[in-house]
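User: Could you walk me through two proteins back to back? I'd like the raw sequence and the structure tokens for each, with a short line separating them so I can tell where one ends and the next begins.

Assistant: Of course. Protein one, sequence then structure:
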Amino acid sequence: MTDTTPAEDLKHYAHYHSLRFKRHPHGVLEIVMSGEGMNKSGLAAADDRMHRELAEIWRDVDRDPHTRVAVIRGEGKGFSAGGDLGLVEQMADDFDVRSRVWREARDLVYNVINCSKPIVSAMHGPAVGAGLVAGLLADVSIAATDARIIDGHTRLGVAAGDHAAIVWPLLCGMAKAKYYLLLCEAVSGAEAERIGLVSLAVEPDDLQPRAFEVATRLAQGSQSAIRWTKYALNNWLRMAGPTFDTSLALEFMGFSGPDVREGIESLRERRAPRFPGSGEAG
């Protein structure tokens, strides 16, 4: 394989609209969460299309003969926003939508884990929602020191499904995982590195250069050795599959309950949630 790949090879990804792609030397593919998924705050929001495309992209990366390593990053003011509230409301109201998004959420996690190519994430600003799934499950996760990593599920009124149960306890330990996930506390990039939630934290101006430096080193290494090492290490995540499946089922059961509706309204009204029965013992 040559160091550069003709631009027309990106036709492989022409059907994506919320993700933007660029080829880099040595088989590094840059994936930018952007396009139609940008919200008014300048963040890539996980609307219908973005959610589906984030689940699908890793299969295409795995099959792409021109890609050795993928780098995923956000555009604008942050890495990724939370789920689009319109989509969340549809999930609460419509069983078919809820079932479809559940399948996509499951596929996103397992497709990242099973992608044979190494994935590097470069997280800046807020990192929330479906984008955060790829960001923290990436093989090398790099955050700006001032990034804000937030798993917002309990703030919305549903269990922390997505990626949290499968990877947070393994990365930063059960005590830290429970603290941040139960309380919905934000984690800075610097703190995320300290507790082991991300691989590296770097100054904001160094984020993209460091991510592409790491990706280039991976792309120039022994592909069989690197991919087989990733496969073996990810068996730790595969063993946690039943835990993940349970968390995801409980999350999506929550979308049929009353708390998520208060979560939606409180986010729209920019106020603290008043969950039904929150003052009572459970």
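----
Protein two, same layout:
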Amino acid sequence: MSTKESICTAGDVPEGEIRGYDLSDGTRVAVYKVDGELYATADLCTHGQSSLSEEGTLDGKIVECAWHYGAFDVTTGAPCAMPCTVPIRIYPITVSDDKVYVEF
């Protein structure tokens, strides 16, 4: 069974930037705005456990981890640069009345 939780407003995440939010179960997610769309992934890189919202950089739809420069496509979770080989978890997002909801 999944839970849907409001974490911010759509305006809280500027275009081309990353913001980190904590869910009620303790999970931290990274939220990105790419071409006007919001995406959410697990906050920790699957290779080095670095926080993507605090240390990562976003270039288009690709987030790069600062520790070892591995990267992921934030729209699919797919790894796209070594040393990352394990996909990052993505979380469905919906926006209603300007509130951003993450399903987990």
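The chain has one domain: 4-103.

Let me know if you want the two compared in more detail.
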